[in-house]
């Protein structure tokens, strides 16, 4: 080949190269904290220079500003931009590498106002770029944004929270990440209570304090988003606070490619880190080696490198294809008046998307139909690793799965069940108040308590998977608000975030609902009722003897003996008595000799329905007997009448049957427990009455009223009842008991049901104590009824979860079964004796003595029989050989006719001790 031929070929090649090389003017705008982006841009420019086959020559103008000093930043940009126009080097494109803040928004406003084709790498999803929210269809084609990896990686938190059903989270990030726009959007529409906060210092002691504050908010899931150095410091601080274990979970997300490390004694951390696309690893290694792209994180450097290179190639494509307008109009910052924005027909978006250059780390994702802004990003992959650290050294690391970058991507797990081992167990803190049968302390139980509410929460946890720790609230109160608006008890614990759940027999009240949330009621409406001592009618087996006083009984006994003695004397001395005139009465059917024994028997039997038998024959004796009969009739009638009255007099007392009855009497003191909801009810009712009185008084004494209006208010009496005011005063005078036990003891110490103390308390408290005691009673109907429900922190997702569980239990009739177990089948319930009722008869306790009298009489008769037999057989034995006179037997009645003397006779042989009957 000749020298001329070589020269001509070289000349033609030079001309061809000169014709295809495009000079591109670029205005690069960056912020001071994003130096890595500018280095990546320089690498891209160097890459273009070293690859002439690309046909590019980049001429940049770089402006760097502070994101917080928007005015100075804009002035610097305008000055550089105006200089480019004066130098006839109008920018083909603006590369906006600002990250966030007012400086970045100022640049967006600048490019939109002047109509400058712009590729931005700023942080933000749809709608976050405020100055680009209202772009028209033409503007969306040349004002373009691609979200950087640092803005996409936190979206993995949403995937983890959703997959693991995490209900609380703390997200800690450093300066490499911008989370301003994610405070609401990151976990939007997910029932997770979360805090997003920057790490306040790299000093471990300050990080410890920050973690303590987060832990005090009852957060157990921690996400650390930042550099490996920041992650190490946070983990070391957590180790010093002893925040590793089954109750906490730690997730570390970093764009850096190294492994996490910490001085932890024993910790397990889920680490997420990006990995380059398999098709891009060789290119990434070549770019890093050849062009010294050594900035870290390498994914960030690769992103800005690819963004810059793709922008250059897109502009060249438009220029080469003739799609770049020839009449591109540019105006200076000073020329802009708010209305003269140049109208662009440039379609930079399509050209940018159609570039086929091999990505350096991972491909870009562009939506097909929607605008790019807020929806475009580098579609990189991350790997999930479970790192176990012991005594400061990593002892194991195994893969859990992966996550592909995206705004709504899900985790891809190798073993979903294994992933669940690395999340914090849902351990909720429950505070309660002991109240039987709802909450009963029992150290033998797994949680240290038993009762209706414990069974309820166990049923709920079968539906809503969680574990819990339960403790009694320190002040033992459900929650009341003082005059300064401060709360105590369970409500205070929930407000201060010291507890997740308030589980007790706690009533739903309007003021409580203002500061906490309540689930649907799990128990019926419960009101206030009255507890009093159960009236007891004294019983006695010999109560029939107490009808008459002792001196009356003695008088009756004296009259009995005196009358019997007189009757014997009258019969003995009267000439008309039987024993003194036997011949006269020998034909009478009834013959009775009134010896002293017979007189005693006659007077005794005269007092009985059997009657006394044959009366004396003498007139004086009969008059005495008639007198005795009249006496006995009056005594028996009086005894019978008084016995009936005596057995029923205790039932005639007027009982307390309602709150009104209690308020109208003065013998029984009454009060609720101090600090209880019942006390609050009565105090407020009294306050309301007092306010009504003040309003009425002000109305009545209002001088501004006319005579007609004042006449309408003129009444003699106050028109509103002051019942509660009087009751509240009576309660204060009686003294409010400080505990339920004290109230019950005061009720028991009452003299009777009509004099003593009555307790006004929760109907369930009263019902349980009455059920487990036989000396107490419930009086009247319930009033001021409210439902029982479970309390949770305001805004807590537990409300909806528990609502669903309680409704399921209600539909399955599980709540009815709980009531049956703890009320009807309660092992502590007492089987009390039935109290006498007015419709009942006389109890055996009051009349049983009569039976004792019978048995005593029978016993006495048996003893007497034995004495008689002994006396007759042993004391009256005749001597051997003694002959006794045989006496004829007395005439006796035989078949209604007296026997004749000659028919037979009886004789007694005293010496033989036998009776001999002979017939002649």
UniProtKB/TrEMBL annotation:
Query: Where does it primarily localize?
Result: membrane
What is the name of this protein? Answer: Ionotropic receptor
Molecular-function annotations in GO: ligand-gated monoatomic ion channel activity; signaling receptor activity
Intrachain disulfide bonds: 78-333, 774-832
What does the entry list under GO cellular component? plasma membrane
Q: Which family does it belong to?
A: Belongs to the glutamate-gated ion channel (TC 1.A.10.1) family.
Its placement in the membrane is given as: Multi-pass membrane protein
Location of this chain's protein in the cell: Cell membrane
What are the entry keywords?
A: Cell membrane, Disulfide bond, Glycoprotein, Ion channel, Ion transport, Ligand-gated ion channel, Membrane, Receptor, Signal, Transmembrane, Transmembrane helix, Transport
Which classification does the entry list for the species? Eukaryota, Metazoa, Ecdysozoa, Arthropoda, Hexapoda
Q: Which organism is it from?
A: Arctia plantaginis (Wood tiger moth)
Entry-linked Pfam families? Lig_chan, Lig_chan-Glu_bd
Decide whether keyword Membrane is in the record: yes
Q: Where is this site: Interaction with the cone snail toxin Con-ikot-ikot?
A: 683
Q: Where does L-glutamate bind?
A: 507, 512, 678, 762
Q: Where is this site: Crucial to convey clamshell closure to channel opening?
A: 656
Q: Where is the signal peptide, in residue numbers?
A: 1-18
What are the Ionotropic glutamate receptor L-glutamate and glycine-binding domain coordinates in residue numbering?
437-496
Give every Ionotropic glutamate receptor C-terminal domain span.
Answer: 427-825
Q: Does the keyword Signal apply?
A: yes
Show the stretches that span the lipid bilayer: 552-570, 626-649, 847-871
């Amino acid at each position: 080949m000749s020298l001329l031929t070589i020269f001509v070929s070289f000349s033609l090649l030079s001309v061809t190269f000169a014709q295809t090389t495009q000079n591109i003017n670029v205005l690069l705008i960056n912020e001071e904290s994003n130096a890595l982006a500018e280095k990546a841009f320089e690498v891209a420019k160097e890459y273009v220079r070293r690859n002439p086959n690309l046909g590019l020559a980049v001429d940049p103008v770089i402006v760097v500003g502070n994101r917080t000093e928007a005015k100075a930043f804009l002035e610097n940009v305008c000055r550089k931009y105006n200089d480019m126009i004066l130098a006839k080097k109008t920018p083909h494109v603006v590369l906006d590498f600002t990250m966030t803040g007012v400086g970045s928004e100022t640049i967006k406003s600048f490019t939109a106002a002047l109509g400058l084709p712009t590729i931005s790498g700023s942080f933000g999803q749809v709608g976050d770029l405020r100055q680009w929210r209202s772009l028209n269809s033409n503007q969306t084609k040349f004002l373009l944004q691609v979200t950087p990896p640092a803005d996409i990686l936190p979206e993995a938190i949403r995937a983890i929270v959703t997959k693991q059903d995490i209900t609380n989270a703390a997200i800690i990030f450093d300066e490499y990440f911008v989370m301003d726009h994610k405070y609401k959007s990151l976990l939007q529409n997910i029932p997770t209570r979360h805090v997003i906060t920057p790490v306040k210092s790299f000093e471990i002691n300050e990080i410890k304090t920050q973690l303590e504050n987060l832990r005090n908010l009852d957060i157990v899931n921690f996400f650390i988003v930042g550099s490996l150095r920041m992650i190490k410091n946070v983990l070391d601080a957590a180790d010093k606070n002893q925040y590793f274990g089954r109750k906490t979970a730690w997730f570390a997300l970093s764009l850096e490619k190294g492994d996490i490390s910490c001085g932890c004694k024993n910790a397990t951390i889920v680490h997420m880190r990006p990995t380059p696309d398999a098709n891009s690893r060789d290119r990434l290694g070549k770019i890093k080696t050849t062009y010294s792209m050594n900035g870290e994180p390498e994914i960030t450097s690769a992103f800005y490198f690819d963004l810059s290179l793709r922008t250059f190639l897109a502009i060249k494509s438009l220029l080469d294809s003739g799609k770049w307008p020839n009449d591109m109009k540019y105006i200076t910052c000073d020329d802009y008046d708010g209305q003269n924005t140049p109208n662009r027909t440039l379609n930079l978006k399509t050209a940018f998307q159609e570039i086929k250059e091999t990505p350096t780390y991972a491909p870009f994702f562009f939506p097909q139909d929607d605008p790019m802004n807020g929806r475009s990003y580098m579609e990189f992959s991350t790997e999930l690793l479970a790192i176990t650290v012991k005594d400061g050294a990593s002892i194991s690391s195994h893969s859990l799965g992966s996550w592909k970058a995206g705004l709504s991507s899900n985790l891809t797990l190798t073993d979903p069940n294994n992933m669940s081992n690395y999340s914090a167990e849902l351990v909720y803190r429950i505070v309660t108040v002991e109240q039987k049968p709802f909450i009963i302390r029992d150290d033998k139980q797994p949680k240290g308590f038993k009762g209706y509410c414990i069974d309820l929460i166990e049923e709920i946890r079968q539906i809503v998977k969680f574990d819990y720790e339960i403790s009694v609230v320190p002040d033992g109160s459900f929650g009341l608000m003082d005059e300064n608006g401060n709360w105590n008890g369970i409500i205070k614990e929930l407000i201060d975030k010291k507890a997740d759940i308030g589980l007790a027999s706690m009533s739903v009240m309007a003021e409580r609902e203002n500061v906490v949330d309540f689930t649907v009621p799990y128990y019926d409406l419960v009101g206030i009722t009255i507890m009093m001592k159960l009236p007891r009618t004294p019983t006695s087996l010999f109560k029939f003897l107490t009808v008459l006083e002792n001196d009356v009984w003695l008088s009756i006994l004296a009259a009995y003996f005196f009358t019997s003695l007189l009757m014997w004397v009258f019969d003995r001395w009267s000439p008309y008595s039987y024993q003194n005139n036997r011949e006269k009465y020998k034909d009478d059917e009834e013959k009775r000799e009134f010896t002293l024994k017979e007189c005693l028997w006659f007077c005794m039997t005269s007092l009985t329905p059997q009657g006394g038998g044959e009366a004396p024959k003498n007139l004086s004796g009969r008059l005495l007997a008639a007198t005795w009969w009249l006496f006995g009739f009056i005594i028996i009638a009086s005894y019978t009448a008084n016995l009936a009255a005596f057995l029923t007099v205790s039932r005639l007392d007027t009982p307390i049957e309602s709150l009104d009855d209690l308020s109208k009497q003065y013998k029984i003191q009454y009060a609720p427990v101090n600090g209880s909801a019942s006390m609050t009810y009565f105090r407020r009712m009294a306050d309301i009455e007092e306010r009504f009185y003040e309003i009425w008084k002000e109305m009545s004494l209002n001088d501004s009223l006319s005579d007609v209006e004042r006449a309408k208010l003129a009444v003699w009496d106050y028109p509103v009842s002051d019942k509660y005011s009087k009751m509240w005063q009576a309660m204060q005078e009686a003294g409010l008991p400080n505990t339920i036990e004290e109230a019950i003891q005061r009720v028991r110490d009452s003299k009777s049901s009509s004099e003593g103390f009555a307790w006004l308390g929760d109907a369930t408290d009263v019902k349980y104590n009455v059920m487990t005691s036989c000396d107490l009673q419930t009086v009247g109907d319930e009033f001021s009824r409210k439902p029982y429900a479970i309390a949770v922190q305001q805004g807590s997702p537990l409300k909806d979860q528990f609502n669903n569980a309680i409704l399921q239990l209600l539909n399955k009739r599980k709540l009815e079964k709980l009531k049956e177990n703890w009320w009807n089948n309660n092992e502590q319930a007492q089987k009390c004796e039935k109290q006498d009722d007015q419709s009942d008869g006389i109890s055996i306790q009051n009349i049983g003595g009569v039976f004792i009298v019978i048995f005593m009489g029978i016993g006495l008769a048996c003893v007497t029989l034995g004495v008689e037999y002994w006396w007759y057989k042993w004391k009256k034995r005749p001597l051997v050989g003694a002959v006794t006179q045989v006496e004829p037997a007395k005439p006796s009645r035989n078949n209604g006719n007296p026997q004749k003397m000659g028919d037979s006779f009886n004789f007694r042989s005293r010496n033989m001790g036998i009776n001999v009957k002979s017939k002649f």
